[in-house]
Amino acid sequence: MAETIEVSGLRKRYGDVNAVDGVTFSVAEGEFFGILGPNGAGKTTTLEIVEGLRQADEGAVSVLGLPPWPRNPRLLPRIGVQLQASSFFERLTVREQLRTFGSLYGVPARKADAMLETVGLADKADVRVEKLSGGQAQRLSIACALVHDPELVFLDEPTAALDPQARRNLWDVLSAINTEGRTIVLTTHYMDEAEALCDRVAIMDGGRILELGPPAVLVRGLDAPARISIASGLLDAADARQLPGADDVEDDGVSLVISTRDPSAVVAAMAAKDALDGVQIRGATLEDVFLELTGREYRA
């Protein structure tokens, strides 16, 4: 597949801080690509350089075959950008807001109105933007990034601060956009979001890419034990430790959890003891990979 984005040896410094430190990656045409990392990892700075909003100190960037910096007017009609924080024109309705954005690209009003249907805001067309909920405002922000039908869309933490229902709803919108053939680059703190949406992810920390690949491949590469959980009291912890294949057992009085690299053997032994009521088996997730690479300490 053709490469929509090519980044090589990207660096950006702020005084003594290497915000981006030798980042290299590519994004294929039609791919849903995620950039993950803790606060201060360099995600947003990397994205802003690729978008042409910030100049790199070193390295090369190609977007749709063109350099994004200095701000390239040939790229602007071909890309859509949704930033972490969006500001709308005051006192305009949703329809007026989107038509205004569309007019900057010569988009007819009828086409702008059709985008409201795409993002599920048709019933809010005559509502003023300050009356929108957080999820609705995020949808409008994405609509503004898409109104001119860009080939490539950048989304910087589009579901931040949304409730679970609004997040899941927005996932459907983003999946539909990608299915239409658009290339999407996403930054997010939510590992379940990246697993659900992204074809590949890059995990960053300290301005560097630590791992890059499909989420399922990264999870398999972790080689983490499975965790089998049942309600406390179904099986004594001492007996659980004697089960074939059991590596570790924890019982907090609510759940008994057995860690194992041979879940089939453990489950078979539990079945023989009639201790499978409400059993749950959890393998490793992208969050486990993320924490293994970036650490578990809190970062403000």
TrEMBL record:
Its main location: membrane. One of its GO terms (biological process) is response to antibiotic. The keyword ATP-binding applies. The keyword Translocase applies. It comes from the Bacteria. PANTHER family: ABC TRANSPORTER ATP-BINDING PROTEIN, ABC TRANSPORTER ATP-BINDING PROTEIN NATA. This is ABC transporter ATP-binding protein. The lineage of its organism: Bacteria, Bacillati, Actinomycetota, Actinomycetes, Streptosporangiales.
